[in-house]
Amino acid sequence: MAISKKSTFSLPHLDAAPSIESESSTAVILPETPSIRIRASKRWSAIDLHELWIHRELLYFLVWRDLKVRYKQTVLGASWVILQPVLTTLVFATFLGNIARVPSNGVPYILFLYSGLLPWIYFSNAVSTSSHSLIASAHMITKVYFPRSIVPFAAVLVRLSDFLVASAILVVLMIYYGQPLKWTILITPLLILHLTLLTLGLSFWFAALNVKYRDVGTVLPVVMQLWMFASPVVYPANLVAPRWNWAYSLNPLTGIISAFRSALFGIPLDLRSLLISAAITIALLVYAAFVFRHMEDQFADVV
Amino acid sequence: MEAPKLLFSRSDRNRTPLWALRDVSFEVRPGEVIGIIGRNGAGKSTLLKILARIVTPSAGEVDIYGRVGSLLQVGTGFHPDLTGRENIFLNGAILGMKATEIKTKFDEIVAFSEVGRFLETPVKYYSSGMYLRLAFAIAAHFEPEVLLFDEVLAVGDESFQKKCLAKIKDVSRDGRTILFVSHNMTAIERHCARVLLIRSGLLYEDDDPKRTVAEYLSEASPIDGKLEAHFTGNNGFDKRHPFL
Q1: By the 8 A CB rule, do A115 and A260 touch?
Q2: DSSP-based three-state secondary structure for A25
Q3: DSSP code per residue over B87-107
Q4: Cα–Cα distances in Å, from B187 out to B61, B111, B184, B199?
C-alpha cells in the first residue's frame, strides 16, 4: 500500500481561521502532501518497514497485553515459562537418555537436551501462536487500520521473552554440571537473532496463509511434531548418516541448533549447515514479506 | 491472487463483476460535516471502511490530510482480563494514539466514562453499560482531524447519549471534519451541512441536506413504507428502524 504518514503533521488553516460556515470564502490551504494516501492495491510489494516503525508503540502494547494476560487464572502463573521446557526435558531424558541411551557429543544428556529443546520450544511455540494470531485478532483487523504484520510480530516477541527467561535454567544447568564457560558463548545472541528471523519468516507466511486457508492451522501441529524429529533437538546432528547430510542441512533448524550447542559447549562448529540455514532464512523472510503484503489487503474481508 | 484463466468455466466468464462502489468522487473541506445516506447495501459502510483503511480499494485513490478515527472502532481490542486502566492504554494504542497522548488525556477519559471507581477492575466484571461508556470515552478522546461515524450513537443510556452528541458538536466546532453515516434523517438534517446519497454503489446526489434527503425518501420502495408504518406509526422517519 502506498501509504505514508508524516509524523510532523499540522493543519495551519484550522488554527488560523475556523470559518466552517462560509464555504465560499477563501480557498483552503492544505499541506502539500496528504498524510494518508490510499491507492488501489499494487501487485507485488514487501511489508512497509516505515509503517511498522511508526506503529512500534502498538507492537509494544500487544506484547505487553499478551504477557500480562497469558497466565491469568492459572495457579502456577509465570512459572509455566520455565516449567514447559523443564518438564519436556525430563520426559525425553527419561525415555531417550536413560532407556534408549542416545549419544550427546560427550555433554551430559540433560544439558544437551535442554540446550536443544530451549530453541526448539521457542521456535515451535512462536510459529504456532503467530500462525493463529491474525485470526484471533479478527475483531481488530475488521475495525481498525494498523500494519497487520504487527500481530504475528508481537506473537513472536512474546515467545522470545519466554525463551530468554527459560535460558536462566540453562545457565543453572551448565553450572550444576560444571560445564566450562567458553568465549564462544558470546556468539549466542547472533544465533538467537538468526533463529528469530527464521521464526518471523515462517510466522508471517503461515499467519497470512492461515487467514485464507484454515487448513494451515490444522496441519501445523503435525508438521511441527515431524519437524522436531527432523532437527537435532533430542539427538546430535552427527547421528545422521553422512550421505544424508546434505538433505539434513536443508532444514534451517539443523544449522542453528547445532551452532547453538557448539557455542555453548565448544563442540566443533558445522559452518556449512549454518550458512545454508542463513541463506534459507533470508530467502524465506523476503518471500514471506511479499506474500504477507500481497494477502494483507484481503484480511479484513476474509478473516 | 488471480486464478489461471483456464480454470474459469464459461458461466464465470460471462459474469459481470460486482462493484461495491463506482464513480464515487468527492472532496471534503476541513471542518465540514458530511452526511452519507443510502439504503442498506448501497455501499456506505464500504466507503467508510476504505477511508478508515480497513479494506483496500481495487481501483481509485484517496488523499487524506490528517489522522482518521472512526466510531466503528468503539471498544476494539478491549481485553476482558485487563483492568479499565490497562484497557485505556491498549485501546488507545490500537486506535492510533501515542502513549504520551493517552497519558495526558487519561483523567479526562476516566471522568467522561464515569467508571472511576472501577478503574482497577478487569473489564469482564463491568456491566455492559460501563464497558460501552469506557470504550466510547476512549474513542471520543482520540481527536483525529477526520472522524467517521457509522450509526453508533445508540450507545448507553439516554443521558450518556446526550453527552455523546454534545461531544460530536464539540468536535465539529473544533473544526474537525466529520463523515456521518446514518439512517436517522433528523440527525442528518440537524448536523450536516452537506449530504451524499449513495445508490447501488454510485454517488447519486451531493447536495444540501433537504434536497438529498427528499431524493432519498422518494426512492424508498412501497414495502419500506409499509414496514415503517408498522414500526413507527406517524412519527415519520426520525425514528425509523435502522435495519429497514
Answers
A1: yes
A2: coil
A3: HHHHHHHHHT--HHHHHHHHH
A4: 29, 26, 6, 20
**Residue B143: how many CB atoms within 10 A of its CB?**
15
B69 vs A128: CA distance, rounded Å: 33
Residue that is written with C-alpha cell 529443546 in the block: A117
Annotated domain spans of chain A: 46-302
Nearest-neighbour CA in chain A from B107: distance (Å): 20
Same domain, B121 and B53: no
Residue A8 CB partners (closer than 8 Å, separation 6+): none
Interface size A-B, in CB pairs within 8 Å, comes to 127
- Confirm if B21 and B201 have CB atoms less than 8 A apart: yes
Residues B80, B136, single domain; the answer is yes
For residue B59, list chain A residues with Cβ-Cβ distance below 8 A: 40
Task: Tell me whether B175 touches chain A (CB under 8 Å).
Answer: yes
Contacts of A37 in chain B (CB under 8 A): 61-64
ipTM of the complex: 0.78
Each of the 244 residues of chain B gets a pLDDT tens digit; together they read 444 444 444 555 556 778 889 889 999 988 888 999 888 888 888 898 899 898 888 888 999 988 888 776 677 889 999 999 999 999 999 988 899 999 999 999 999 888 989 999 999 999 988 888 898 888 888 888 888 877 644 455 566 666 666 766 777 777 788 888 887 788 788 888 899 999 888 888 888 888 888 888 887 654 444 444 334 333 334 444 444 3
Question: Which range marks the domain in which residue B131 is found?
Answer: 70-144
B152 and B238: one domain? yes
User: pTM of this prediction?
Assistant: 0.82
Overall domain count for chain B? 2
Looking at CA atoms only, how far is residue B70 from chain A in angstroms? 8
Neighbours of A215 (CB within 10 A): 10
The closest of B65, B18, B66 to B46, measured between CA atoms, is B18
Q: Which of B30, B79, B126, B109 is nearest to A69 (CA)?
A: B79
For the record, the C-alpha cell of B228 comes out as 415503517
> Grid coordinates 464513480 are at which residue?
B23
A274 vs A252: CA distance, rounded Å: 8
Distance CA A211, CA A273 (A): 33
Question: B102 with B53, same domain?
Answer: no
* Element at B150 (helix H, strand E): strand B146-150
Q: Tell me how far the alpha carbon of residue A70 is from its chain's centroid.
A: 17
Question: Apex CA B48: angle with CA B46 and CA B50, to 5°?
Answer: 70
Comparing CA positions, the residue from B103, B149, B157 lying closest to residue B128 is B157
- Can you give the CATH number for the domain in which B40 is found? 3.40.50.300
* Domain match, B78 and B199 both: no
- Residue B179 bridge partners (DSSP): B34, B148
| CATH number of domain containing B102 | 1.10.8
Nearest to B84 by CA among B121, B112, B111: B121
CB of A89 within 8 A of CB of A113?
A: yes
Grid cell locating A255: 544449522
